[in-house]
Amino acid sequence: MNANARAQEMIDLSHSIVQVMATETEALKERKVTDIEPLQFQKESLAGIYEAHMRDVAANPGVFKSIEPDLRTALTDAAQQMETTATENRNAVQAALELNTRLVQVIADAVMKSAPSASGYTKTGATPGQPATMARAPTAATLNRSL
Question: Is residue 60 situated within a structural domain?
Fold first, then answer.
């Protein structure tokens, strides 16, 4: 594949990744949880392809020296757009994760507050909630049948 065709393929791939990340970010903001899983699969697939291209470019550093100036500009713009969108996507994912973590904590706290407490006596003879120091020491008692 010549340098211009490779550059165009990376531009198209970058635009596809940007589109998926933007859609995922919007789904996260709108809390459309069912829409997120297929987008993550798509994003992983595209990112894997992009990573393979970048490894190839790193192995052949001069591969883009001969591309047309317009393609070079478009490739740079696509990379910048992908970086910006990736930052927005990362922030949206972190915000959603924090929101879910807080929600789970609120639910856990509510469950703990509504859980029934033990009733009866503790092993020291105190009632639940009563400090152990206030519990009376056991006292021996006998019953006399005669009055």
Answer: yes
Query: With b meaning 16 or more CB within 10 Å and e meaning fewer, what string describes 35-74?
Result: ebeebeebbeebeeebeeeeeeeeeeeebbeebeeebeeb
- The 10s digit of each residue's pLDDT in 2-53 is 889 999 999 999 999 999 999 999 999 888 888 888 998 999 999 999 999 9
- The number of distinct structural domains making up the chain is 1
Domain contains 145: no
- pTM > 0.85: yes or no: no
Cβ–Cβ contacts within 10 Å for residue 79, how many?
Answer: 13
